[in-house]
Amino acid sequence: MPVVRALSKVARQALQAPGCGCQPLAVAVTSGSDASFHSVSFSETDHPKVLITGGLGQLGVGLAKLLSDLGKNNVILSDIRKPPSNVFHSGPFIYSDILDYKNLREIVVNNRITWLVHYSALLSAVGEANVALARAVNITGLHNILDIAAEHGLRLFVPSTIGAFGPTSPRNPTPDLCVQRPRTIYGVSKVHAELMGEYYHHRYGLDFRCLRYPGIISADSQPGGGTTDYAVQIFHDAAKSGKFECNLKPDTRLPMMYIDDCLRATLEVMEAPAETLSMRTYNINAMSFTPEELAQEVRKQLPDLQVNYEIDHVRQAIADSWPMNFDDSNARNDWGWKHDYDLPELVQTMLNFIGAESRVAQVH
Ligand SMILES: NC(=O)C1=CN([C@@H]2O[C@H](COP(=O)(O)OP(=O)(O)OC[C@H]3O[C@@H](n4cnc5c(N)ncnc54)[C@H](O)[C@@H]3O)[C@@H](O)[C@H]2O)C=CC1
Ligand SMILES: CC(=O)[C@H](N)C(=O)O
Question: Which InterPro entries does this one have (predicted)?
Answer without folding.
Answer: Epimerase_deHydtase, NAD(P)-bd_dom_sf, NAD(P)_epim/dehydratase
